[in-house]
Structures are given as structure tokens and as C-alpha cells.
Write a structure and sequence with these properties.
332 residues, TIM Barrel, globular
Length: 332
């Protein structure tokens, strides 16, 4: 049996974090949220993971972002986070926003992948069991799978909310023409899309064209994942690819081929601007994403408390002079 610890959250935690309303809802999210995509799986140090969640909460980070396949092994991030909650946060569930998602490959066979009703309904039940929660604050369709009619997926999200398994529905990585269908269906059912999650960073600005304006028009909040471009927008790769870095691994989402000389040079030039602002490159990159009032929050993924602390410092300086924005624009 897991034993609870004597952890007591910092009494001043909420004064340390600015919050923003999520779209046209009454729910506020911290400007920085903690993602559990990496470093919270069964292969990772559970003590470090616990310390990061505690540090985050002590600094006003109330939103923790999961998905059913996060690990490795798939599902283990939810299991570990559930254990962290039981051992440290039993009295603070109502002070947290906990989200999860389903849609990527999770278990064997024809029903463990994709965006079908079968997959989503089974997935939310499995995720609730792994985390030990009675409900998620937000449950997302993690992606459009290219096959399932978007109407089927949307009806599953509606039922998940109406059955009390989640308080709000969200979508992630949907192409604009299908996001529009989901937004309208959810609104018509009285379950408006609370939040839209997409990749957004200085090195990936695709959402600016259609996704950000569309989400704002339908009253959906927006949360950015990979705001540091998997580490490219940190000082880690300014001089090439270090050993044991994410890009040095044979598997993973950041591959050696993505760490091009052009990207390294761009990061160096951006780093020079960040230094003049009194920030690290990571701090400036996060602040840049947050400067758009349509962006509710950014999801950071960290491997240590020190890295998390650096990310949170971005909130100390989020304004940019016109000449800084012009210089940054020319680089990226």
C-alpha cells in the first residue's frame, strides 16, 4: 500500500503564477502547464518525477497534461502520476486540472489505435483506472486518424463529458477543416470545445495561419505543446548534439537530422537576443509563444527541477519591443 507523505504545498503558490481564462469559459489555466510526455514513464526516475510535480504545484502550476500512451511503457506516465497524487496530493485534487488524451496506438489489435468510439470509450476508462481518478478535468481526442468519421469521434467526446468521465472536451492536432466541424458539433450539443492543443514554437508557426484564428472564433482556448521545439530552442544544441541529449537517442521525436546547421545557427542568433533581454533562450522562446493573447498556456516538458525552474522564469518578462520582434522574425 502506498503511504502518503508529509508534503505541504507552498502557501504562496498562487501568487507566483498568472492565469488566463480558457477561451470563452470560466476556467482559468496557468500560463505554464507541466506535460508528462517525457520523463514520467516506467523507465524514468520516480523521485525526480515527484519532485518536479511538487515544484510545479508550489509555483502555481495547476494543470498537468497526460495522454494514455505516454511512457514508456505506454500508460506508465498515467500510472506514475496517479501514484504521485495518492502519495502527496489527496487533499488537493480540486486545486488541479488534470487532462488526458486518446487516439494514438496504445494496445494490440484493431481497437487499440485511432479515433473510433470504441477506442475513446475504452481509453478513458483505462486512463481513469491507471490514475485512480474519478474524472478528468479535460479529455482530448489526441488526433484525427484519417479514417474515422469526425462525427463519430465528436459524439464520443460529448458522451464522455455527459457521463461525467470528464468535465470538458478538447481536441489536438486536427486539421482546420475538421476542427471546424468538431467545434460546431460540440457547441450544438452544449459541450463546447474548451481547448485546442497544437505544436507551436518559434520554429513551427503553422498554427498562426488558420488554427489560432479558428479556435478564437469558436471560443476555444489554445495550449501549445513543444514550445521549445523538443529542446532546439534551448542552449543544449547551440554547439551541436551533446551526448545523452534527446536528439542523440536512436528513437524519439527529435532526430539528428532535425538538428541542422541552419537551425543551430538560428538558435545561436536567437540566443544572442535572449541574452540582451536578460533571459535564457528557453525563457525567451516560451515568452514569445505567450505574447499572443489567444494562447492560454504552454506545456513544458522537463527532466529536472532546475530545468522547470528556468522555464517558469519566462513569466518574469513576456513583453517584446517592436525591434526585438522584428529581429526575431528575420531569424525564424
Amino acid at each position: 500500500m502506498n503511504q502518503t507523505t508529509d508534503y505541504q504545498p507552498d502557501a504562496h503558490r498562487y501568487a507566483r503564477m498568472p492565469y488566463a481564462y480558457c477561451g470563452k469559459s470560466g476556467l482559468r489555466l496557468p500560463r505554464v502547464s507541466l506535460g508528462l510526455w517525457h520523463n514520467f514513464g516506467s523507465v524514468d526516475d520516480f523521485g525526480v518525477a515527484t519532485d518536479m510535480v511538487k515544484y510545479a504545484f508550489d509555483h502555481g502550476v495547476t494543470h498537468f497534461d497526460l495522454a494514455n500512451n505516454y511512457g514508456p511503457a505506454p500508460g506508465s506516465a498515467e500510472t506514475n502520476f496517479g501514484r504521485i497524487l495518492r502519495e502527496n496530493f489527496q487533499d488537493y485534487r480540486d486545486e488541479m486540472i488534470i487532462s488526458s488524451k486518446a487516439g494514438h496506438e496504445m494496445w494490440a489489435g484493431p481497437y487499440g489505435d485511432g479515433s473510433s468510439r470504441k477506442n475513446l470509450m475504452a481509453s478513458v476508462d483505462q486512463s481513469l483506472r491507471r490514475t485512480g481518478l474519478d474524472y478528468f478535468d479535460i479529455f482530448y481526442s489526441h488526433r484525427y486518424d484519417g479514417v474515422t468519421p469526425v462525427e463519430e469521434t465528436t459524439r464520443a467526446l460529448i458522451d464522455i463529458v455527459k457521463q461525467g468521465k470528464a468535465l470538458y472536451a478538447g481536441i489536438s492536432k486536427y486539421p482546420p477543416h475538421l476542427a471546424r466541424v468538431v467545434y460546431q458539433m460540440l457547441a450544438d450539443a452544449g459541450v463546447p470545445c474548451l481547448i485546442s492543443q497544437y505544436r507551436y514554437s518559434l520554429f513551427d508557426r503553422e498554427v498562426e495561419a488558420e488554427i489560432l484564428p479558428l479556435a478564437a472564433r469558436f471560443g476555444s482556448g489554445f495550449i501549445a505543446f513543444s514550445p521549445l521545439a523538443q529542446g532546439l530552442l534551448t542552449d543544449k544544441y547551440l554547439h551541436g548534439i551533446p551526448e545523452r541529449s534527446r536528439a542523440a537517442r536512436s528513437t524519439g521525436f527529435l532526430q539528428t537530422s532535425q538538428v541542422t546547421p541552419e537551425r543551430i545557427e538560428a538558435a545561436r542568433r536567437l540566443n544572442a537576443i535572449a541574452e540582451r533581454r536578460g533571459q535564457t533562450l528557453a525563457e525567451m522562446a516560451l515568452a514569445w509563444v505567450l505574447k499572443d493573447e489567444r494562447v492560454t498556456s504552454v506545456i513544458v516538458g522537463t527532466s529536472s527541477v532546475a530545468q522547470l525552474a528556468d522555464n517558469l522564469k519566462a513569466l518574469e518578462h513576456t513583453t517584446f519591443a517592436p525591434e526585438e520582434l522584428d529581429a526575431i522574425g528575420k531569424i525564424v
